[in-house]
Amino acid sequence: MKFLVMLAAAATLCFAAACFAAGESLVSRATMLAIERTMNQTFSTVSADPYEVLGTARGTYLEGYGTLFTTELDLINAGPLSPSPFKPKMTPQEIETTRKRKEKKVAELKDTMRTLMMNASETLEGMPANEHVAMEAILFYYSWENSRGLPRRIFMTAEKQKLMDAKSSHATPQQLAQIIEEQER
């Protein structure tokens, strides 16, 4: 009888250990946080025409697929241009200037996202090389803007190994763009 109780206890411990081991992610939360911080710092960097970060970066690891990082941005800080009681209406010139600035920033955002993905590939040590690094930027537009034809979302994905190879070979932005699948919605 004592043997059966010990056997049952041992089986329970083994089962519990297997359950907890199965729940651990191949990519640590600390690694995900580091990449999120890098994204937030990159998009918050003060420049001549900065992004407006509306939602901080969030990342998750999906076993069998890889990682997905998302952020929400306004391509430019258009808030000061918005209608207010002191300035109730936007001029056609302001609307056109805003659109041109945003068109230019879409290309810059894509280059930035590609670089972030490439750099993240080396940081994701526990993730298998055949899984993907994916990134999505959700873009904001005011109701007064002419956003026709501009993307609402930019989604990119690439296999981790291809990104690591690009990093080690010092790939040009054009070469990097060729290995990353992109979708605009």
Number of domains: 1
Largest sheet: 5 strands, mixed
Could you give the order of the helices and strands?
HHEEHEEHHE
From the spread of the alpha carbons, the general shape counts as elongated
- The oligomeric status of these chains comes to single chain
Q: What topology, given as strand order, has the largest sheet?
A: 1-2-3-4-5
Output mean pLDDT: 87
Provide the helix percentage: 40-55%
Radius of gyration: 23 Å
Can you characterise this structure?
With 185 residues, this protein is of the alpha+beta class. 46% of the residues lie in helices and 21% in strands. It has one domain. Strands 1-2-3-4-5 form a 5-stranded mixed beta sheet. It starts with a helix and ends with a strand. The N terminus is likely disordered.
Give a short summary of the structure.
This protein is α+β, with helices and mostly antiparallel strands and 185 residues long.
Fold blueprint:
Layout: H1 2-23, H2 29-44, E1 52-62, E2 66-74, H3 92-123, E3 132-139, E4 153-159, H4 160-168, H5 173-179, E5 181-184
Parallel strand pairs: 2-3
Antiparallel strand pairs: 1-2, 3-4, 4-5
Question: What are the salient characteristics of this protein?
Answer:
single chain, about 180 residues, 5-stranded mixed beta sheet, 5 helices, about 45% helix
